[in-house]
C-alpha cells in the first residue's frame, strides 16, 4: 500500500465513520436476549435463555444422529479437547451410539459442499435443557458453527461447570466473512496460519484470503515456473504440499481458501526470476521497502498471457475454491508510460489510457480464469465497464462504492473500514457495516453485498506480533459480518471481547502472551512491571504514520516497543470509564477516586522507575520521552483529582501549564501515542471549572466538561 | 517408566546426591574469570576479560575467512537476526569480502563431518578487542558454538550495545551432551521439536535423542509396515519427510539425531497393528496409562527378526547418525513366562532366564544393526556379558554403573540425575557429574564416559507445558556437560540461568510466557495477579508422586494448576535469600525486612483474594486448601517478623501452633507443594529463640537456627 492510497483510504473511511455517527442507528437489541447475560460472539440471530442448566461433569458424552463423516468427527474431537482443557475434566472419547444417554447430541442432515462454498448453509439450532443439549444443522459446517457456540456457552460457579438452558436459532447475516493475511511483505510460518485458521473458526469466519504474492515476496511454490518462488522469496515460501495442508486444515473448519496473485502491479517478486514478463527490461530485485512500486507485467505481449495461463492453471488445480483473486490494485502504469512498444500497442488497439489497458489485461485474465473454471475476483480498480457480472469486487474504497457495484449487479465484499493494520480500535471496525440501513439498495441489490474481509497487511508484522494485530479486534468484525445489524452495543462488545480474547489463547494464539515476552527481551530480564505499565497505556500510531515516524524496511527487526504495544488499549478504556464515573459523582468526586488515584500514582511511579532501565537498554532509548510524559501525566492527574476532591479550583496558570504539558505528551514518539490524554484532560478541565459546577446538575456538568475538552487547544 | 523403577531411581539418586554432598568438591573457579562478570552459559573452559569494548551499532558487519559453506552462512544469518532482535538495529546482510572492515570475522578451517558425529571437533576461540572480534574454529560446528558465545557476550549501557574485550578458548568437557524427548507418551508437533533444537544449540547441546516409540504411541511413519504408525499413534506421528526436516534442522545447528526404537518391552503400540510380533496373542490397544506394561516382542520367532531387519533397515536409511538406540529397558518378561513356546525355546537353547533371553535378543539385534551400519545403544539393562565393546550404554542407574562399564571398556553416557521430568531443582542436576573427581577411573577408562543426556519423559507434558519442564533447568545440565568440572557455583549458575531463560524466549520457547496464559484459562479472564502469586510459590510434587496424588491418563487434559506451576520456584529461592540476610542482621533484623514484609503480606492477601475466583472456577477447586495455606503461611511469617523486629520472643504455644500449621501446609495438595515452608519455619524458630541470641554472634546464631529448623518436627 502506498502513502497516496493510504491517504485516500483514510479520507474515505473518515467520511464513512462520520456518516455512521450521524445515522445514529437504533441501539436496540434484536430478537436476542440482553447480551449482558452471555458472552457469545458473534451474537446469534436469536437467543432465548430459559430456566435451568445442563451440568458439564466428567461423565459428559456426545452422540451423533443423522449424517456423520470424518470432518464432523474431527470437529467434535477438537471441541471436546477444548472443553476438557477449560474444565480440566477428562471425557469419554468418540461418539455414543445411544443418543438418549448423551449430554450433547449433534445431528447433521448432510455433508454440505465437498469443497467449502460461498453457497454453504451454515445455519444451526441449539437447544439446551437441564437434561440434554441438541445441536441440529443442515450441514456439517452448520454443526461446526454450533459447536463453537456450545463452547462459548460454558459457564461455571461453585457447583461446577454448566451450559445454561437456552434456545438458539442462528445463521449468518453475510455469507462471505473473511480474513486476508498478507504473507508477501513478511512471511508467516505454517503454525501461524494454522492457529489463525483455528481462531477464525472460533469466530465463525469462513474465508481465508491468502495474499500470496507481493513486490516483497512470491510465497507459493510453482513447479512450472520454479524461479518464481526460488528467486522471489528469500527461501520463504509454502510448498504445494503445505498449501494443500492449509487448504485441508481450513476445509476441516468450514473455511474457504481464496488465493490472491496480485497482478499486473505489486509484481516485482515475479520479475526477479522472469524479468521478461515485465514492462521494463530489468533486472529486478526483491523489494525491501513498503509502498507502491513501478514494476508491472507487460499486458501487450502474448508470452505474458501464455505464462499466466500456465501458472494460473497450475494454481487453479492446487486451490479448489471457486474464486481466484487477481489483485489488480495500485498499478500506476509508470513502466507502461515509458515503454514505446506498449505505447504503440495502445495506439494500434485504440486503448486510450492505462486504466483501459488494465481493463484489457483483466479481460484477458478473465478468459484464462474461465478456462480453468474459476470466478475472478479483484480490488476496486477492476470495476470497469464491460466487467462480466460474475466477477467479485473487493472494495477498499467503501460501502458507497460497494453499493454502486451492487446496484449494477456485481457481487462485492467490503474491506474498507476493516484494515486491521491501521491500528484502529475494535469499536471503529464494529460500527462499519457493509450494508448500512440507509444504503438505499433493494433486497435484490443488497443480495450482491456478500460480506466483508478484515485485511492484515503485512508491512509491520512478524510471527511474534501478527496475532496481536489480528486479535482480538477481528472478533468484532466477525460479529459485524455474522450477527444482525441491530447488535451494535459497543460497550457490550468490549465486555465479551475480553472473554473471547482469553479463550482464543487455548488455540495457541499469542496476542496476549507475547507482549510480556517482548518486554523481557527489551529489558533484558524478567522485571518488566514498570515497562508493562507504560506500554499498557500506549498504542502504535494509527493509519500509515508508523513508517513516516520510524522508517524501516521489510528486513528490519520488529522487536521494538511499538511492536510490543497493541492497538485499542484496554487500560485506556478502563481509565476513561473510571473518569466518567468520577465526574458524574459531582460534587463529591468520590466514586472510583481510589482506583483513579492508584492508577495515576502507578503511572507517575512507573515513569520514574523506568529511567534506569531505559538508560541500560539502548533499544529502549526511544522510550525515554514517553516515560517522562507518563510521569507528568500521572502527576497532573493526581493534582487535578486532589483539587476536585477538595472542592478547590486551581489557577488558570495551573490549567494552562498542564494542558500545555498534555499537548506535548500527545505528540507521538517512537511511533507510539497515549490514548489516555483526553481522560486526563477531562480531569484537569473539570477541576478548573469547579466553580461552575454549583450551578449545574451532574449530567449537564459532565456534558459541559466533554465540550470543553473538545474545545480545548489540542 | 514404572513406579517400581521410579523408586529404584530415587534411591539411587538420593545416594548419589548424598555422596556428592559429602565429597565437598572445591568451589574454586578454573582458569575462567570470576563469572560474576559475565552471563555466559555454559561457562567456557577459559575466559579472560580485558580492558575495552567493541561497540555494536547499526554498522555492524560480518566477514568470513577460510572455509565457508551454506551451514555456516545460515548460522551467521540466524545469529544476526537474534542480534538485531535484541538491539532493534538493522544490520547489513551477507558476508563482507573485506575482513579488515568487519566487526566480526569468522574463520572456519573446514566443514567438519558431513553427518554430525560424536567425533566432531567443537572447539573455538573468540578474541574481542575494541576494534574487531575474531572467531576461529577447526570446523563449522565450532563456529556455530562460538557464535552462541558471541551473542551471550552482548552487553549494554547508556552508550549503547557492546561486546566486552575478551579472550576465550573453549571446548567441551564431554562430547555427548544430549536431550531426550519422549514423544511416545505425548506427541509434540514439529514446531515444538524445532524450537527445542534451537534452544539446545543456544546451550551447546549436541545430541537430540528422539524417543520415537512407546507403549503409548508409535510416532514415526514406516513405509514398509504402515500399520505401525497408522494403528499405533492416533494419527499423531512424524512423516519420514518431517523426520528428514528435523534431521536437517538439527544438522544445521551441529546437533546429532539419535532415534530410539524401544524394544522388546515398551512395545504395545507396535503390536496394535502387528499382534503377531507379540509374546501373547493379542489383540492389543494403544496404552493410555503410565507405567510398565507386559507386552513385549517375541524373541524366539524368526519372523520377528525378519520384521526388525526390514524395519530397522528402513530407519537406518532414514536416520544418518552412526548410533541407533534400541531401548531395552523395563521388560519384566511376564508375557514370556506365560508363553509355552517361549519356555520351550529357552529350554532347548539352554537360556536360563528372561535376562538371558533378552541378551539373546540383543545379540540378534546387534547383528541386524551391524548389517545396516549402525552402532547399538541401549539402557543399562543391555549391559550383559558378551556385549560387544562398540555398544553404548545409557545409564539410568548412576555414575557408579557408568564407571563400572567404563572400567570394562564400554562407552557410556549418564542420564541418572538428569531426569528433568522429576521436577528437581536445577541445582540438583547441576551437582550431578558424569565423571566425579573420585571416580577412580584411569584417563583411558574415563574416556569411555562420553557425557550425558537430560531426559524429558513425556507422561505429563503437552505442547503447552513441555518447554517449561525442559527449560531453563536443562541449561544447568548443559553447563555440567560442557564446562570444566570446577565450574560449580550454584548461586552464580542461578544468576546466569535467569538471563539465559529470557534469551531462550527469542527462539520461540514458551517456558516463561505460557504460565500466565494457563492461569488466564483457569481463571476464565485476565485478572490473575493473586493466582500468579500463589503459583509462584508452588512446585509440582517431585519424583513420581504426581500420578499417585492426582492420577490421570495420557488422554487427560494437562491444563490444571499443577501444569501451570513450574519446578524450581524462583520466588522461593529469592525469599530464602531474603530471610538469610534478615537473620544474619541480628539483633536488629532490619536488613531486607521491608521486602520480606511486602512478600508475606502479598501471600496473606492473595490467599484471601483467591477465594472468590476459586469458588467460581471449578477447575481451581483443588487449589482452595493451597490458597488457605498461603494466607496462613503469610500471616505466621508476618507475626514472626514482628516479634523479631520488636525483640520480643513469642510463647511456646504460639511457636507450636505455627509449626503445626506449617506441617499441614507442607503436605502436598493437588500434586503441588510449597517450597517456602522451611524459610518461614526459620523465621518462626528464630523468633522463638530470640532470648538465646544475646549470647551468640550473628553467624553462629544463624547456624543454630538452621540446625533447629532441621531438627523441628516436619
Structure characteristics:
714 residues, Chitobiase, domain 2, disordered N terminus, 45% helix, 3 domains, homodimer, 8-stranded parallel β-barrel, alpha/beta
Mind explaining what this structure looks like?
Chain A is α/β, with parallel strands linked by helices and 714 residues long. Chain A folds into three domains: 3-18 and 174-489, Glycosidases (TIM Barrel, Alpha-Beta Barrel), CATH 3.20.20; 46-170, Chitobiase, domain 2, CATH 3.30.379.10; 514-711, no CATH class. Chain A contains 28 helices and 19 strands. Chain A has an eight-stranded parallel beta barrel, surrounded by four helices. In chain A, strands 1, 2, 3, 4, 5, 6 and 7 form a seven-stranded mixed beta sheet that branches. In chain A, strands 10-11 form a two-stranded antiparallel ribbon. In chain A, helix 12 links the parallel strand 15 (392-395) and strand 16. The interface between A and B is large, with 46 and 47 residues.
Brief overview, please?
With 714 residues, chain A is of the alpha/beta class. Chain A is built from 28 helices and 19 strands. Chain A folds into three domains: 332 residues, TIM Barrel, CATH 3.20.20.80; 125 residues, Chitobiase, domain 2, CATH 3.30.379.10; 198 residues, no CATH class.
How are the SSEs placed, and which strands pair?
2 copies of one chain form a homodimer.
Chain A: H1 3-23, E1 46-56, E2 62-66, H2 70-87, E3 104-110, E4 124-128, E5 133-139, H3 140-152, E6 155-157, E7 160-170, E8 176-182, H4 190-202, E9 207-211, E10 213-214, E11 217-218, H5 227-232, H6 240-252, E12 256-263, H7 268-273, H8 302-318, E13 323-327, H9 334-338, H10 340-349, H11 354-371, E14 375-379, E15 392-395, H12 399-407, E16 411-414, H13 426-430, H14 443-446, E17 449-456, H15 466-470, H16 473-482, H17 490-505, H18 514-523, H19 529-536, E18 539-540, H20 545-549, H21 561-564, H22 570-584, H23 593-616, H24 624-646, H25 652-665, E19 672-673, H26 677-688, H27 690-693, H28 698-711
Parallel strand pairs in A: 2-3, 3-5, 8-9, 8-17, 9-12, 12-13, 13-14, 14-15, 15-16, 16-17
Antiparallel strand pairs in A: 1-7, 4-5, 4-7, 6-7, 10-11, 18-19
Amino acid at each position: 500500500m502506498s502513502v497516496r492510497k493510504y491517504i485516500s483510504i483514510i479520507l474515505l473511511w473518515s467520511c464513512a465513520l462520520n456518516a455512521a455517527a450521524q445515522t445514529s442507528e437504533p441501539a436496540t437489541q434484536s430478537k436476542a436476549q440482553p447480551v449482558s447475560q452471555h458472552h457469545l460472539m458473534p451474537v446469534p440471530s436469536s437467543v432465548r435463555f430459559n430456566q435451568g442448566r445442563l451440568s458439564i461433569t466428567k461423565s459428559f458424552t456426545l452422540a451423533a444422529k443423522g449424517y456423520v463423516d470424518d470432518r464432523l468427527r474431527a470437529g467434535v474431537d477438537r471441541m471436546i479437547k477444548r472443553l476438557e482443557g477449560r474444565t480440566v475434566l477428562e471425557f469419554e472419547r468418540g461418539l455414543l451410539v445411544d443418543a438418549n444417554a448423551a449430554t450433547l447430541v449433534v445431528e447433521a442432515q448432510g455433508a454440505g459442499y465437498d469443497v467449502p462454498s460461498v453457497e454453504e448453509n451454515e445455519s444451526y439450532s441449539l437447544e439446551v435443557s437441564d437434561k440434554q443439549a441438541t445441536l441440529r444443522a443442515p450441514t456439517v459446517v452448520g454443526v461446526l458453527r454450533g459447536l463453537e457456540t456450545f463452547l462459548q456457552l460454558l459457564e461455571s460457579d461453585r457447583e461446577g461447570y454448566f451450559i445454561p438452558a437456552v434456545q438458539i436459532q442462528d445463521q449468518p447475516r453475510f455469507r462471505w466473512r473473511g480474513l486476508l493475511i498478507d504473507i508477501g511483505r513478511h512471511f508467516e510460518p505454517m503454525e501461524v496460519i494454522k492457529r489463525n485458521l483455528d481462531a477464525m473458526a472460533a469466530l465463525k469466519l469462513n474465508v481465508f484470503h491468502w495474499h500470496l504474492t507481493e513486490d516483497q515476496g512470491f510465497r507459493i511454490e510453482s513447479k512450472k515456473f520454479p524461479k518464481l518462488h526460488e528467486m522471489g522469496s528469500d527461501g520463504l515460501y509454502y510448498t504445494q504440499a503445505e498449501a494443500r495442508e492449509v487448504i485441508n486444515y481450513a476445509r476441516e473448519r468450514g473455511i474457504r481458501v481464496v488465493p490472491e496473485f496480485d497482478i499486473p502491479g505489486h509484481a516485482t517478486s515475479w520479475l526477479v526470476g522472469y524479468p521478461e514478463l515485465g514492462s521494463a527490461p530489468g533486472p529486478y530485485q526483491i523489494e525491501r521497502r513498503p509502498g507502491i512500486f513501478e514494476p508491472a507485467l507487460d499486458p501487450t505481449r502474448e508470452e505474458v498471457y501464455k505464462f499466466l495461463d500456465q501458472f494460473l492453471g497450475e494454481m487453479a488445480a492446487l486451490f479448489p475454491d471457486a474464486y481466484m483473486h487477481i489483485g489488480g490494485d495500485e498499478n500506476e502504469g509508470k513502466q507502461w508510460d515509458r515503454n514505446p512498444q506498449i505505447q504503440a500497442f495502445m495506439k494500434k488497439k485504440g486503448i486510450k489510457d492505462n486504466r483501459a489497458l488494465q481493463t484489457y489485461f483483466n479481460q484477458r485474465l478473465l478468459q484464462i480464469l474461465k478456462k480453468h473454471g474459476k470466478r475472478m475476483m479483484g480490488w476496486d480498480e477492476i470495476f470497469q465497464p464491460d466487467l462480466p457480472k460474475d466477477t467479485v469486487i473487493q472494495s477498499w474504497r467503501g460501502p458507497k462504492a460497494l453499493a454502486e457495484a451492487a446496484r449494477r449487479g456485481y457481487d462485492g465484499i467490503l474491506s474498507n473500514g476493516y484494515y486491521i493494520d491501521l491500528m484502529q480500535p475494535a469499536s471503529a471496525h464494529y460500527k462499519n457495516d457493509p450494508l448500512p440501513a440507509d444504503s438505499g439498495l433493494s433486497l435484490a441489490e443488497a443480495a450482491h453485498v456478500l460480506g466483508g474481509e478484515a485485511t492484515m497487511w503485512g508491512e509491520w508484522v512478524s510471527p511474534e506480533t501478527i496475532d496481536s494485530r489480528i486479535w482480538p479486534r477481528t472478533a468484532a468484525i466477525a460479529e459485524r459480518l455474522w450477527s444482525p445489524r441491530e447488535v451494535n452495543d459497543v460497550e457490550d462488545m468490549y465486555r465479551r471481547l475480553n472473554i473471547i480474547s482469553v479463550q482464543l489463547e487455548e488455540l495457541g494464539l499469542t496476542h496476549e502472551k507475547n507482549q510480556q515476552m517482548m518486554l523481557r527481551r527489551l529489558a533484558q530480564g524478567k522485571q518488566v512491571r514498570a515497562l508493562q505499565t507504560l506500554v499498557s497505556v500506549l498504542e502504535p500510531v494509527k493509519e500509515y504514520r508508523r513508517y513516516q515516524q520510524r522508517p524501516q524496511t521489510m528486513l528490519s527487526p520488529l522487536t521494538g516497543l511499538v511492536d510490543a504495544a497493541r492497538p485499542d488499549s484496554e487500560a485506556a478504556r478502563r481509565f476513561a470509564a473510571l473518569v466518567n464515573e468520577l465526574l458524574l459523582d459531582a460534587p463529591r468526586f468520590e466514586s472510583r477516586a481510589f482506583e483513579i488515584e492508584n492508577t495515576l500514582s502507578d503511572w507517575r511511579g512507573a515513569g520514574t522507575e523506568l529511567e534506569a532501565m531505559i538508560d541500560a537498554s539502548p533499544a529502549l532509548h526511544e522510550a525515554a520521552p514517553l516515560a517522562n510524559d507518563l510521569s507528568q501525566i500521572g502527576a497532573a492527574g493526581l493534582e487535578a483529582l486532589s483539587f476536585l476532591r477538595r472542592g478547590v479550583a486551581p489557577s488558570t496558570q495551573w490549567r494552562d501549564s498542564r494542558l500545555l504539558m498534555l499537548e506535548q505528551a500527545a505528540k507521538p514518539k517512537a511511533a507510539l501515542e497515549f490514548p489516555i490524554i483526553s481522560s486526563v484532560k477531562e480531569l484537569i478541565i473539570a477541576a478548573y471549572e469547579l466553580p461552575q459546577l454549583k450551578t449545574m446538575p451532574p449530567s449537564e456538568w459532565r456534558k459541559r466538561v466533554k465540550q470543553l475538552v473538545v474545545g480545548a487547544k489540542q
